[in-house]
Design goal:
Layout lengths: L19 E4 L4 E4 L2 E2 H7 L2 H10 L5 H13 L5 H8 L7 H12 L15 H22 L13 H10 L5 H14 L6 H11 L4 H12 L6 H13 L5 H10 L17 H17 L4 H19 L13 H7 L7 H22 L32
Antiparallel strand pairs: 1-2, 2-3
Helix pairs in contact: 1-8, 2-16, 3-6, 5-6, 5-10, 6-7, 6-16, 7-8, 8-13, 8-16, 9-10, 9-16, 10-16, 11-15, 12-14, 13-14, 13-15
The structure holds acetyl coenzyme *A.
Acetyl coenzyme *A binds next to loops.
Length: 388
């Protein structure tokens, strides 16, 4: 049994994938060989879904067919809308999303062994429905009726439409579309790995995606998106940024949205999100989010560099998510859910990739407890239950 443990599996290669590649030292992210620097300004989220699920960028006919299928699959089963209506309005959006996604499995046929079909169409179904759950919950908790999805809009456009009942401005639709493209996949990150572990037991795609959602929730992963928003709202104005950073670090806390396990340079997604945040801020006019986030990043880099010379910490994808989604009118506690609406494309593709060439994922641990010894009958135990 090896005794060396790579805590947090840092630097450990646990499998292979054809879906995406993170090159942390040069700051490059590719989906099936396409650089996100090319995809972000040019491809739509639907094209990325096709690329991840079918292995190639779609031609026009394939793209239209995928869009039709996504549109046709957006509506939720009525009992799940009713279920959301009976949830306390104070429920955390990620809890609602995870629970209702798990509930989708109840409406999908099972075979005699209780197994759901886990195929590309189930994947498209999940991708189509997650934004409907989020937009539905957003309205229900505001005491509004959910807006039925439209079949003719893009994933991004339809999500914004379902929140407000109005077709969004092209700049807003494009911004959200680019956000979804940037979030679609990221190799063996924690939530994707969780989905693959579950799939490796031959549990179905609903179980796998529910596990991925649970894993995304923590603030060392996708929960940082909502946490970064809280930070920006606490900073309030650019002038407060440096003092805020010093206070946070003095308390031994972390700046949310800064730092990354894999990237040793700035997360390539942050550059695109920053540009979008700036554009959106000009579009909405007078929004404080972009300027404040920018000042916070500058202050964080300066103070972290001062305190830990040689350990440069840069903005990650969650950092500029805050100004982008805030300027799209999305409440801060829903940011992690929107992250999931993009990442579900990658999660489902990873589940299908795992199932296509499966081996149970079952690692080992070094045991650090007491040595093996005899069972102690109850009347011979010390009063605290410890072996005498
Ligand atoms: N603020 C302050 N200090 C930081 C930060 C931060 N955001 N990130 C890392 N550090 C410091 C740590 O305190 C540590 O210092 P030390 O060596 O003196 O103890 C050093 O940098 C290394 O940090 P680790 O936690 O060992 O690095 P790891 O690779 O595990 O961390 C992580 C990556 C978890 C993302 C970390 O940078 C962090 O906590 N960031 C804030 C949360 C966040 O933004 N999460 C989203 C990540 S992106 C995503 O999941 C989509």
């Amino acid at each position: 049994m090896p005794t060396v443990v790579d805590r947090g599996l840092e630097g450990v290669v646990v499998g292979s994938t054809q879906l995406s590649n993170v090159e942390g030292t040069i700051g490059r992210l590719t989906y099936r060989g396409y650089d996100i620097d090319d995809l972000a300004p040019n491809a739509t989220f639907e094209e990325i879904v096709h690329l991840l699920l079918y292995g190639h960028l779609p031609n026009r006919h394939e793209l239209e067919s995928l869009k039709r299928e996504l549109g046709a699959r957006r509506a939720l089963p009525e009992p799940l809308i009713n279920a959301m209506q009976s949830v306390p309005k104070t429920a955390w959006p990620m809890d609602v999303l995870r629970t209702i996604v798990s509930g989708l499995g109840l409406f999908s046929p099972v075979n005699a062994h209780g197994e759901h079909l886990s195929d590309v169409h189930t994947a498209i179904d999940l991708i189509a429905k997650m934004p409907t759950i989020l937009a539905g919950w957003d309205r229900i908790r505001r005491d509004l009726e959910p807006v039925a999805p439209r079949t003719d809009l893009s994933q991004a456009g339809n999500f914004l439409y379902m929140r407000t009942g109005k077709v969004p401005h092209a700049i807003e639709e494009d911004a959200l579309d680019t956000y979804l493209v940037l979030l679609a996949d990221h190799s063996f990150n924690a939530s994707t790995f969780a989905a693959r572990v579950v799939a490796s037991t031959r549990a179905d795609i609903y179980a796998s995606i529910t596990a991925a959602l649970a894993t995304l929730q923590g603030d060392l992963h996708g929960g940082a998106a909502s946490a970064a928003y809280r930070t920006v709202t606490e900073v309030k104005t650019p002038e407060n940024a440096e003092r805020y950073v010093r206070d946070i670090l003095d308390r031994g806390q972390r700046i949310m949205g800064m730092g990354h396990r894999e990237y040793k340079v700035r997360d390539p997604r942050a550059r695109h999100l920053e540009a979008m945040a700036k554009e959106l801020s000009e579009h909405v006019g007078g929004s404080p989010w972009y300027e404040t986030a920018h000042a916070l990043e500058e202050a964080s880099r300066k103070v972290l560099q001062e305190r830990k010379p040689g350990n440069t910490i840069y903005a990650n994808v969650d950092f500029y998510t805050a100004p982008v989604l805030a300027d799209l009118g999305v409440p801060g506690d829903e940011f992690t859910c929107l992250f999931a609406c993009g990442r579900v494309a990658g999660w489902t593709a990873h589940v299908l990739e795992q199932l296509a060439d499966n081996r149970l994922i079952r690692p080992q641990a070094t045991y650090e407890g007491p040595p093996a010894g005899p069972y102690v009958p109850i009347d011979k135990r010390a009063t605290n239950g410890v072996r005498a």
